[in-house]
Structure formats: C-alpha cells, structure tokens
Specification:
alpha/beta, 64% helix, single chain
C-alpha cells in the first residue's frame, strides 16, 4: 500500500532555527535547487511517518509576507499557489514578539498553520515563560515546543502536522487580527464587493485579498487583473476609493496603519502568553558580544579565527590527503602494470589520473574549510564578522551590507554574486559584484595548497591565510576606488541582526559541509575531467616528435652499465647501485616527457604566452595552467598535474617535487598564488556577472580590471622580491 503524501512547508524568520529544524527532519534526504525563475535556493526532502510520506519544503527565511524582497515573494507565492497541506511557522521562542508578525500574516492567509516555538531552551535560560496553550487558544493554532539542535520536539511536530493536515476544518477566521473600526468596516465592505464581483471564482481568501488590495499590494493587483478580467477595473477602482478614504481618515498610508495595528494585536498576545521569571538569568550572547564585537578586541579576534580556520584546513587536511593520494597512486600503479603500452593507457594514467587525481586529493581540505564556515554560520558568529567588517567598510565609504555576499565568496563566487540582489541601490549592487571575485573561493584553495605545501613547509597555513587576507584588502581598496570614480554615491546605513549564539548541531554541520562538498565532487566528473582530457590531448600530440636524444637507448645503456657494476658488488653495494640506476632511468624518462610536453601543442601555446608570464617568474607550464583556469580554477591544479606527470608519480608529493625540480622558487610560487587570487574569475562567475549586471560591458570590465591588477601585483611581488634578494 502506497503511503499517503502530504506537503509540509516550513516558514520562519531568518535565524529562527528553521534550517536546523529542516535538517533535523530530513537529514541527508534533501534535494537542493533553485525556485523557478529566481536564484533563491530551494530545499526539500521526504520523510516517512506513521504511514505518511511527508514532503518537507524549506521556504526562504523572511520577516513578513509583504512582497518587497525575492524571499518574501517566493514564500508567499508558494503558500498561495501551491497550497501546502500544512505550513509550520518556526518561531524563535526567545524573540517571540518579532516572530509573531509573520505568524499573524500566515494566519490571515487562512491556511492550516502550526507554530513551532523553537529554541525553547534559550528562552528558558533567559527566564522567559510562554503559555503555549493560551497562545494556541488565542490564535486557534496547534503549538509545539522544539529545540532543533537537540532534536527535541521534532517527532511531536510531525505528529501535529499530520493531525492538522487530516483535520476537516481549514481553521475558523475568528482568531484573526482585529483592526480598528474604520479599517474593519472598509475590509468588510470591500470583501463583500469582491465576492459579488467575482462570484466566488477568486482563488484566494476574499478577506485577505481585500486587506492586500487596501495595502496597495502590486502582486495581488496583477493577480486580480488575471483572475477577474471583466471586473478587475471595478475592483481596483474600489480599492483606490477605500484607500483614499482611509488615508483621509488617518492622515497616513493604510498599509502603515494596518502594520501598526498588527503590532498592537501582537502586543496584546504577548501580554497574555508571555512572562519572565524573577530568577536572575545571564544573557550569555550579550556577554560574549562584549568581547567578540568589542571595538578594540573584536577585529583581532576575527582575524585570529580566520587564520585558525586556514591553518586547520591545511594541517589537519594533510593526513587524509596522504590516504587519498595513496589510493589514487595504487590504482594508477595497478593500471600501469596490467595495461599494455597504448594511447589509452597514456590517457588514463597521465591524463585522467594525473589530472583528476591531482585535484580530488584536496577534497578533505575543501570539506574542512566548509565545516569551519558552517560552524561560523550555525553558532551566529558569521553575523558578528559582518558586523565587525561593516564598521571598517563604512570608514572607507563602502556599503556595509555588501560584506554579506562577499563573505559568501569564500565558498563560491557565483551564489555570492547572486546574493547582491538583496542590495537596494543598483550602484551598490554593481560595485559589490565587481569586488566579490577578489574574495578567494574554495576552488582556488587546491592551487594554494600545492604551491604553499611545496615551497613554504610548516608556514603554509599562514601563507594561505595571508593570500586570503590580501583578497579582502583588494576588495576594499577596489571598492573605495570605484566608489570615488565609476560608481559615485554615499554609503547607506546598515543594520545587521545579531542572532543569539547557539551550540551547533553536528548533524547540521555535516549536512552543510556535504551540500557544498558535493559541488566540488560533481566538478570532478564534469568540467575537471573534460579539462584534464583536453590538456592531455594538447600535451600528448603531435606524436611524431623529433627528440634531441634517443632516450630509450640512453636508458638501456644505464641499465647495462649498472648491471655490470652489480655483478661483483656485495649485497649492500648492489642495493645502492639499484637505487642509483632507478633514479638515472627515472631522470631520463622525465627528460623525455619534458621534451615531449615542450614540443606538443600545449608546449607551443605555452611558448606563445610565456613572454606575458615571464616577468612574474611563472614558466610556460604555469602560464598554460593559468589560462585553463578560466574554465574552473581547480583545472589549474589538474593542468599542472598533467604537464608535470612523471613515471615516478608513485610518491604522495610527486607534483610538489616536480614543481620544485622545474625551477620554481618560493618567490615565483608566491607570485603565482597572488595571480590566481586576483586574475579573471572562472567561466561560471563571469556568466553570473553578466547576468546580474545585465551588461557585457561590466563583464568585460571585470575581466580586464582583475587580470590587470593580478599581473601588476604579481610583477611587484616577484620583481620586488628579487630586488630584496629573496629569489
């Protein structure tokens, strides 16, 4: 027997713990995508409970259903058009008054609503007491206490949702917001007018429709035009008449008056259901903020946390990197032994495994980085970091709110650029889009790890942190420059909500980490695999190369020479001679591959671009790798892996040794890291810039500006270092 399917939508304010509840319910059974027509992330999952298949939909976090932001529009349209069986409003129990505004709006929609008073433990710790039964009675909705990060109340929540979905009644409207006499009279008059004009064909609750039209809701006006074509003009004219009447009566816009009266209704509820105990409670979040957001201590602590994140990413990641690299080497060695010497074997070993394998080993570093970012988000510290940086950015005249999408750029620049849609000013939005690519995304991390690990040893983590910090500095300086020239304008005031600190739930952290890690893995089987094969083809052809030496003959001579020397040698001497023979043969093979790569199509391309990169201390192989990085920054590593692939790649740090042997120095490695940090963004980010700015001009400008800055800064690092004798 197939289970009965029910749809449960989760609504709630940002920082109410809605995502934690969603993760607690669905676990890893989630699908992530975008809502139709917009870039807002959509999450949903299916769970089975008591013979029901519950489709859980996580609506965007919003403070109201007034359609100003994309999130508000998406949340409201879903409830209106998709008619979920139950809407669960996740309410921050420690901030009840603010959360109830959205709750009252959902109640006015006349859908089946269930309240989840989340973070009940925080409320109790602060001495807050909420009468859930009284709240349920006043608004005629079921109420459940939950603690999302401890899985408390989750099963009760699902049981209540199923019971509510199966209840016959939609819920009486007597428990709605009651407005003042004049407004209620206008609502009732307009409601009757709409019912008579539409004859019951309107798909929405008529009282709610009347309220929205009196508030001059443009989206509902468009819906009325679509659904009540013949009578739409009469309905909209009636709305204008009543709005003008109310405006004359109150000397204020009806929307403002009705908003004030909703808050008045909420205040009445608070007095009925909310109380505080006389016991003294310590506000932990406020006391922590006295230190973490302190004007003198806050920023150094923030810098320390970021440094610690990258140090942990590098040092802790070293161990699993060795394990994965060993597995890749084991598979590659197995193929080397069992496959005949053909072009396919060369493709698999020196193309696929040298390319994809050189990138996939950094999966642990990527996961550790995302795990740390998830800790910042789930504990509430991410908001504090934006708050701290807001002060600095205001000092240089940059829009403080812009740092939020910039923070997202540490993960991936594409969603970070999309997040600029929340900025009101077009100039601020374009400015933020232009500076966000300087925030070093996770795709660049493997490049830093390879170069820093090869040339900076124990200081690798600190060097990587310095590179990331450089990206932040250049974002700020570029913002100041563009604000003063191309995009003049005053910085807007900014209010950053500081949610209470919470103990992160391991399950939620792992889900967030894995959601982002999956994107990295998908690239392995897509763009990086294709890129590695293309690079191998360009470096393996043409096949009819005229070599300067007969490398096979030279290798055979070495084997013959050492065989003779070993004839009369003792056991220890034989072992030493065998090691020397292997090293000599490997060197010959490496020289042959180097000459083949140099005379290949890739080598010819590298020689063509070499003059551009030579002043930066980057050889032709590094130059080609940087060119391929336009598709995806991870391909820089896979290209280096293919071009530096050797027959001795069985050692875990083979590519690091190959880079050192190629003549690269710590100074040229640092120059290349700076270039990777600052030069043109990847193809996906470039497309996002064009889409979000709506202009090829800004896209081309971003490419030209970032690449010019990258070249100049790498030139300064390399040539300046040489002048100081650091080469």
């Amino acid at each position: 027997m197939n289970p009965k399917r029910l749809t449960v939508a989760l609504a709630g304010n940002p920082n109410s713990g809605k995502t934690t509840i969603f993760n607690a319910i669905t676990g890893t059974r989630q699908k992530v995508g975008n809502w139709p027509g917009v870039t807002v992330e959509k999450k949903e999952g299916t769970v089975y409970k008591d013979g029901y298949a519950l489709r859980i939909v996580d609506l965007p976090g919003t403070y109201s259903l007034t359609p100003y932001s994309i999130e508000e529009i998406v949340a409201r349209n879903y409830v209106l058009d998709e008619s979920p069986d139950v809407v669960v409003d996740i309410i921050d129990a420690s901030n009840l008054e603010r959360s109830l505004y959205l709750a009252t709006q959902l109640r006015e929609l006349d859908c089946k609503v269930l309240f989840a008073l989340n973070m009940a433990d925080v409320a109790r710790m602060r001495g807050m007491k909420i009468d859930a039964e009284k709240l349920s009675e006043l608004l005629d909705v079921p109420v459940v206490f939950t603690v999302g990060n401890r899985n408390e109340g989750i099963q009760a929540l699902l049981e209540k949702a199923i019971a509510l979905a199966e209840a016959d009644s939609q819920g009486p409207m007597r428990r709605r917001v009651k407005y003042s006499k004049d407004i209620e009279s206008a609502i009732q008059e307009f409601k009757t007018f709409i019912e008579e004009a539409c004859g019951g064909t309107l798909p929405y609750n008529t009282r709610w429709t009347a309220i929205k039209l009196l508030e001059d809701d443009k989206i509902i006006k468009d819906r009325i035009t679509q659904h009540a074509k013949e009578n739409a003009a009469d309905i909209l004219n009636k709305a204008d008449q009543l709005r003008h009447m109310l405006m004359d009566r109150f000397d204020e816009d009806p929307q403002i008056v009705m908003t004030d009266e909703r808050y008045g209704f909420i205040s009445g509820i608070i007095k009925e259901v909310y109380s505080t105990t006389t016991q003294h409670r310590v506000d932990v979040s406020r006391n922590i903020d006295l230190v973490l957001t302190n004007r003198f201590l806050g920023f150094p602590i923030f810098v320390f946390f970021i440094w610690a994140m990258f140090e942990l990413t590098f040092t802790l990641g070293e161990y699993p990197i060795g394990w994965i690299d060993g597995l890749v080497t084991l598979i590659s060695g197995f193929l080397e032994r069992v496959l005949p010497q053909t072009l396919l074997k060369d493709l698999l070993i020196n193309g696929v495994f040298a390319g994809v394998g050189s990138v996939i080993v950094f999966l642990p570093n990527i996961l550790i980085l995302f795990f740390c970012i998830a800790i910042f988000e789930d504990t509430g510290y991410m908001a504090r970091s934006a708050f701290l940086m807001d002060k600095i950015m205001h000092l240089i005249g940059l829009h403080g709110k812009s740092f939020i999408p910039m923070l997202m750029g540490f993960g991936c620049n594409v969603p970070a650029i999309m997040a600029t849609r929340t900025l009101e000013s077009e100039k601020d939005r374009i400015l933020t889009i232009l500076i966000t690519p300087f925030m070093s995304c996770s795709a660049k991390l493997p490049v830093y790890i390879v170069l820093a690990g090869a040339f900076f040893g124990e200081n690798a983590g600190t060097v990587i942190f310095g590179v990331y910090l450089t990206g932040i500095v250049f974002s700020i300086l570029t913002g100041r420059l563009f604000r003063s020239t191309l995009l003049r304008g005053a910085d807007a005031p900014f209010v950053m909500e500081l949610p209470p600190y919470r103990a992160p739930m391991l399950k939620s952290l792992l889900i967030h980490m894995w959601d982002r890690g999956k994107i990295f893995l998908r690239k392995m089987g897509g763009v990086i695999l294709i890129g590695s094969v293309v690079v191998w083809v360009l470096s393996a052809f043409p096949r009819d190369i005229e070599y300067t030496k007969d490398y096979p003959l030279e290798a055979e001579r070495v084997r013959t020479l050492y065989a003779k020397l070993q004839e009369n040698a003792g056991p220890s001497e034989k072992q030493r001679l065998e090691e020397r023979k292997t090293a000599e043969v490997d060197r010959i093979r490496s020289d042959r591959r180097a000459e083949q790569a140099e005379k290949s199509y890739m080598g010819r391309l590298g020689k063509a671009v070499a003059p551009f990169f030579e002043p930066l201390g980057i050889d032709w192989k590094g130059g080609v790798a940087l060119l391929t990085g336009f598709v995806a920054k991870e391909i820089v590593v896979s290209t280096l892996g293919v071009l530096h692939a050797t027959e001795t790649a069985s050692e875990p740090d083979a590519m690091k040794k190959a880079l050192s042997a190629s003549g690269m120095t710590p100074l040229s490695a640092l120059s290349m890291m700076v270039f990777v940090l600052l030069y043109l963004p990847c193809l996906a980010t470039t497309a996002a810039i064009r889409r979000e700015t709506g202009s090829y001009k800004w896209m081309a400008f971003s490419i030209a500006y970032s690449t010019s800055v990258a070249w100049l800064m790498s030139f300064f690092v390399y040539q300046g270092g040489r002048l100081l004798g650091l080469a």
